Amino acid sequence: MVRRLGTAVLMIFLVVTFTFFLLRLMPGNPTLIEYHLLLKQGDSPQAALQYVNALYGVNIHSPLFLQYLSYLGDLAHGNLGTSVLYPNTTVLSLVAAALPWTVFSVGLALTVSAIFGILMGTVAGFKRNGLVDTLLTPVATVLSGIPNYLTGTVFLFVFAVVLAWLPQSGAYGVGVRPGFNVPFLGSVFVHAALPVVSYAVTQFGGWYLLMKSSTASTLGQEFIVGARSRGLTSSQVIYRYVMPNSLLPLFTNFVLAIGFMFGGSVFVESIFSYPGLGYLLNQAVSNRDYSTMEGLFLIITVAVIVSNLAADLAYIKLDPRISGEDVL
Amino acid sequence: MARLWPVLKSRISYLAAAALLLMFALMAIFGPMLYPHGIPQGSQFYAPPSWRYPLGTDYAGASVLAEIIVGSRYVLFVAALAACFTMAIGVIVGLASGYVGGLTDTVLMRVTDFILTIPTYPLLIVIAAVVKISGPIPMAILLSINGWGGMARAVRSMVLSLKRRDFVEAARSLELGNGHIVGRQILPLIMPYVIMHLILAVTSSIYGEVGLFFLGLVPIQGTNWGVMLNFAFSASGAIYVPSSVFYLMAPVGAIVLVQIGSVTFTKALDEVFNPQISAL
Amino acid sequence: MARQHPITTEASSGAGALEITGLSVEYVTKRSRTRVIDNLTLTLQPDEMLGVVGESGCGKSTLAYSIMRMIPPPGRPVAGAIRFGRHGDLLSVPELYMNRLRGDRIAMIFQGAQSVFNPVRRIGRQVEDVFQAHGKDRRKGLERARELLKATQLDPGRVLKSYPHEMSGGMRQRVAIAMALLLDPEILILDEPTSALDVVSQAAILELLVEIRQRFHVSLIFITHDFAVVSSHADRIAVMYAGHIVEIGRADEIFRVPRHPYTKGLIQAIPNIRGPLRDIRAMDGEPPDLSKEIVGCPFAPRCPEVMDACRSYKPELLTIAPGHEAACIRAAMAEAQ
User: In chain A, at which end, N or C, are there fewer CB atoms within 10 A of the end residue's CB?
Assistant: First the structure.
């Protein structure tokens, strides 16, 4: 347990370091570019230096190692720097504003796709070569590999443009007053529908295939024969004997998927101009807002590492076979 | 390879998948030669399909089919290159880790874990934003930068189990040399796995590549499927015009077809390499 | 649980026995049709212990699964009947009714008791499941489980709270036996209950079976490939070969004067010292391929006493002494003289 925690902390540290040096050692060091850009624009070296310093919180003339230390120090205080795109706004507050939208849409999509995938996968696992299996397996195999920008593009075009049933962009309608009221919540769900479906359709295939194979392999185990020999009812066998065992391996995937969908939110949120982390990252990248980019990348990666850790820890709790044993 | 044909013949879907992939390969190699004078231009924007323009025309009246065909070369070439890089790095790291063992193994596996943890798309986006990517080779390197982790892990575990097999131990006791053992005895046995995953790596490279073009993070040059999607959203606004359906759906359809072909063909390969599994 | 079929549990009036007549089981695939049990007839007496012996693949496990009506697909019974007292033919009762009999009137214990329990559910909960499934009070069920576990020399409190992986193989097999007895079954089928265990646990399980027979009114079918195990514990022994019973009779008599050459071979293959149990495939040759039609006696190709007639004529089970039957031309001829 302690070792896993240590690994996670080390990972986070490595990511921080990696991000820092990626942005400074790569040929396109943004701080230097900015600096030279300012010089070209006629700023004095002094003013340019000050400006860059204010933007990135780094002094480009100080040794890289010292820059790194001060960066670490800032991070320790939760300071991710200031946005270039939105002056006088800290990266942290940008993230704080975007995060709920991503958590909401990604979480909803994950839940919906997992529920459908698991239900259908269970049916297909029980009835191999049955109707569900024959119809859904080829579809799921293709869907599980399709990137979500394709589904996003198709859904935007079909449902928001051609049919115009759903809004094309944004998180809620213009003129709706944010707060806990019915028009706002309704607007939020209507606006989230297409992004959520775009994620969910691509995720569904994976859940379905995983659950199908997990169910089939659980059904092949001896304890199912044992349970039937004791005359257990079929609902007992399904809900208490098959599903707890077939769901167990999927649990890890579920927690991991949370982290990875944060990464995948760039495309869908850009397509629907949905103001979450991915949209923010795309905005930061296309506007060369490096400090925001750096902060976002860090936060997304840390989310993945933390969900990795959470998956490990929760699995220990869930599976009696490993609790107590190689925990330490 | 002699075993491939009977398996392909056994199912129509396998044959169709093989034909589909072959068609895309031919399209990438010879496609641009079909249009020596550039992409045919019509006068009508977003024209519906016709004999002259089988997939209609785009926002500027250009033939969509021609764009797909001409654009396939860059997309597929870069993706194939990236897949080869990915496999090469994965195999080398996995071999080194599994065969040499010890500290090398520990270090390489830690690096692999690290690579596997970092989410792919954000990493590609951040790097593409910082580094100027131009030309197919840097693009392919970028795309392979964190796809090799799974391959390295798989190769390592295969090597570990092969190392304990009799024939490898016999070769070691004969002091046949590491190069001989790895090249002649271990590599041939893991090749089937590598080939199967090479195809899947091509499709995932296509996704990364098209995604980067889609977001406009790599310099737009010429025509390719990603650029078409990008233009649909940005320059032309085709996505907001219902009549652009053929222009919009053409690159989507091309990518989905490659995906269907790859997945099905990989299944056929799986049957070739693991006959006992497919018999079940 | 909508409808529950009432099942009377009072001691049956002498008809608790199982009568299998003309049972045939086939595994049918697109390419082949394998007859694993061929026209088998067998009667299980009340309270007796019947040993069923044979090499792997002779159909003895399929026989057990047929009685439970749990033959794994693509296997299915194609002919015959399994009469179980007032319950009628087990092969034709509705599935719901059959399921109520499983674990209640007929219980089964498997070779792989290591993995016969749900790995993520405590034993106590799995005991409760059995009572719930059969519409009985769970509280009383746990009481009953405690008694039985005590009888099997286990600590009931600990076992009921345990997960299966927390127990040894021998312990799990004892728990499996206790669980099979929860509802006082009339028939208990044991499919190689000791072959996955070490020698010490094997002896303990056999001892436990002796005790069970003293305490409970239960008919036992003990399936094994090991003649030595059943010869000292069973009342009667049925020897199976290629889907047929080739010899059946009182255990001591079969052991003393085996009539079928196959039985003789099995007995000769028993190691002299009761040491670690060996597979009895010390006999020459292989069992016949059941997916092909067999002409004559199925044992003829391996039989040391084979005659010309054996290759063309399929012998039926014939009584050669009171309560002793064998399916062998030579044995029948010897009797006739």
Answer: C
Per-residue pLDDT band at A118 (split at 50, 70, 90): very high
Cβ of A321 and C108 within 8 Å?
no
Pick among B11, B12, B130 to test the A interface (most A CBs inside 10 A): B130
Mean pLDDT throughout C221-243?
Answer: 88
What span, in angstroms and rounded, lies between the C-alpha atoms of A65 and B263? 48
Residue spans per domain, chain B: 4-279
CB atoms within 10 A of CB B144: 22
Please state whether at least 3 CB pairs lie below 8 Å between chains B and C.
Answer: no
Which pLDDT score, from 0 to 100, does residue C246 have? 92
Tell me the pLDDT band of C281, cut-offs 50, 70 and 90: very low
Q: How far is A291 from chain C (nearest CA, A)?
A: 48
Q: How far apart are alpha carbons C142 and C150 in whole angstroms?
A: 12
Token couple for C132: 């719930």
- Mean pLDDT of chain A, nearest integer: 79
Asked which of A164-168, B11-15, C73-77, C254-258 is least confident by mean pLDDT, the reply is: A164-168
Query: Å from A8 to nearest chain B CA?
Result: 10
Contact state of B122 with A266 under an 8 Å Cβ cutoff = yes
CB count within 10 Å of CB A132 equals 19
Interface predicted TM-score (ipTM) = 0.81
Q: Which residue of B has its CA nearest to A141?
A: B263
Taking the model in full, what pTM does it have? 0.79
Q: How many CB pairs under 8 A join A and C?
A: 81
What mean pLDDT is predicted for residues B130-152?
82
Nearest by CB to B119, from A11, A157, A304: name it: A304
- Interface membership of B116 toward A (CB under 8 Å): no
Task: Out of A236, A244, A320, name the one closest to residue C129 (CB).
Answer: A236
Cβ-nearest to A321 among C103, C119, C125? C119
3-state SS assignment for residue B16:
helix
Output phi, psi for C105, to 5 deg. Answer: -95, -30
Residue C80 one-letter amino acid: G
Q: Which residues of A touch B270 (CB under 8 A)?
A: none
Do C105 and C87 form a contact (C-beta atoms < 8 A)? yes
Contact residues, chain A, for C75 at CB < 8 Å: none
Domain boundaries, chain A: 2-76, 93-168+197-327
- The verdict on C222 touching A (C-beta cutoff 8 Å) is no
Mutate: best of B118, B210, B217, partner A, most A CBs <10 A: B118
Using DSSP, state whether A326 is helix, strand or coil: coil
Neighbours of B60 (CB within 10 A): 14
pLDDT at position B54 over 80 = no
Q: Does C166 have pLDDT greater than 60? A: yes
Burial status of residue C8 (CB atoms within 10 A of its CB: 0-12, 13-18, 19 or more) = exposed
Which superfamily, per CATH, for C18-105+185-336? P-loop containing nucleotide triphosphate hydrolases (3.40.50.300)
User: CA of A156: how far to CAs of A168, B49, B148, B217, in Å?
Assistant: 7, 22, 33, 21
Task: Answer whether C325's CB lies under 8 Å from C318's CB.
Answer: yes
Which CATH number applies to B4-279: 3.40.50.720, 3.30.70.2740, 1.10.3720.10, 3.30.465.10? 1.10.3720.10
Name the residue of chain A whose CA is nearest to B113's CA.
Answer: A11
CATH class of the domain comprising A93-168+197-327: mainly alpha
For residue A129, pLDDT over 70 is answered with yes
A159 DSSP assignment: I
Domain segments of chain C: what residues?
A: 18-105+185-336, 116-184
